UniProtKB/TrEMBL annotation:
Protein name (Swiss-Prot/TrEMBL): Zf-RVT domain-containing protein
A Pfam entry, by short name: zf-RVT
Entry-linked PANTHER family: DUF4283 DOMAIN-CONTAINING PROTEIN, REVERSE TRANSCRIPTASE ZINC-BINDING DOMAIN-CONTAINING PROTEIN-RELATED-RELATED
Signal peptide positions (record): none
Domain Reverse transcriptase zinc-binding stretches: 235-319
The species this protein was found in: Cephalotus follicularis (Albany pitcher plant)
Domain of life of the native organism: Eukaryota
Length: 328
């Protein structure tokens, strides 16, 4: 055999993988993007392949390793190149910035997940030793989104689990309160519960404050529970990705573009229109690619996005034909 040894397609390494360890992932993406007759695929077709096939190739890696930044950047580069040019190794720029493409569909993007954010979300389900040490760097992020629900108190640490208003008692009141209580450091919440009622030793001012605060927390005979964001909500990589991703305001037109019965090729074209990304002649004239911006339909006016889709007499004739056909 050869090093590194692989299992289920992944390198068996005892530390964070290097770029060379992950080269098989990069090579696999490049092979897949070169195996299709990409020139015959529309943008809509490439988008479907990217979401359903190409992105799934890296999912297993992202849920197992914290991938090197260079690998994640390369994966995004391959996906971006395939979307815009049909090849995974093209150096040409895309029509729309990648960060805009990676926005949710409702926010005007294409709903593609950028590799770095997806890796951060996916690795939260990993519990391997070296990965866990890296996950600890995300404690603050997780801490703000996990809800501890106390019921019988048999599961949670009394002092070191954040069940007390989202914080640990030890972090709020310090170690002194543990000594004052006379309870062990490994005590469970159930140590201060009797007959489904709170029963704190009221020895110090801090313990009295804790008692008054916890009196508002109802108890029951059920098992303690941990929720994601809110009660009844379970952790999923998808929800973690949404929480990590930058907030984006919804755009009012996304349902016009991505309606259920859409034709992907046409929807992508309309999306490019809303993103002002079509290379119309007025843009090409400004950058010196062509010398004239005269409308290709010979109407004598200059070609722009609004003219091409709405103001050109040829376009108006087409719109009027279909509007009349469908009773508008």
């Amino acid at each position: 055999g050869s090093l590194p040894v692989r299992y289920l397609g992944l390198p068996l390494v005892a530390s964070k993988p290097t770029f060379m360890d992950c080269k098989i992932l990069v090579d696999k993406l490049l092979r897949r993007t070169s195996s299709w007759l990409s020139n015959s695929l529309s943008f809509g077709g490439r988008l479907q392949i990217l979401k359903s096939v190409l992105f799934s190739i890296q999912v297993f890696w992202c849920t197992t390793f914290i991938l090197p930044a260079a690998v994640l950047k390369k994966c995004d580069s391959i996906l971006r190149s395939f979307l815009w040019h049909g090849l995974g190794n093209s150096k040409r720029a895309g029509k729309v910035a990648w960060w805009k493409v990676c926005r949710p569909v409702s926010a005007g993007g294409l709903g593609i997940k950028d590799s770095r954010t997806w890796n951060r979300a996916a690795i939260m389900k990993c519990n391997c030793s070296w990965g866990w040490r890296n996950i600890l760097a995300s404690r603050k992020f997780m801490h703000r989104r996990i809800l501890y629900e106390v019921k019988n108190g048999n599961t949670f640490s009394l002092w070191y689990d954040p069940w007390f208003q989202g914080e640990t008692i030890a972090s709020v009141f310090g170690q002194r309160v543990i000594l004052d209580s006379g309870l062990p450091r490994n005590a469970k919440v159930s140590s201060v519960v009797m007959d489904n009622r709170w029963d704190w030793p009221l020895i110090s001012a801090s313990l009295l404050e804790i008692s008054n605060t916890t009196a508002l927390i109802p108890l029951s005979a059920g098992c303690d529970a941990i929720h994601w964001l809110k009660k009844g909500s379970m952790f999923t990589i998808q929800e973690a990705w949404k929480a990590i991703s930058p907030r984006s305001q919804d755009v009012p037109w996304y349902k016009v573009v991505w309606f259920p019965q859409r034709i992907p090729k046409h929807s992508f074209c309309v999306w490019l229109s809303f993103m002002q990304a079509h290379k119309t002649l007025d843009k090409l004239t400004r950058v010196g690619v062509v010398s004239s911006n005269a409308c290709v339909f010979g109407c004598g006016q200059g070609e722009s996005l609004n003219h091409l889709f709405f103001a050109c007499p040829y376009t108006v004739t087409i719109w009027n034909f279909f509007l009349a056909k469908y009773g508008f």
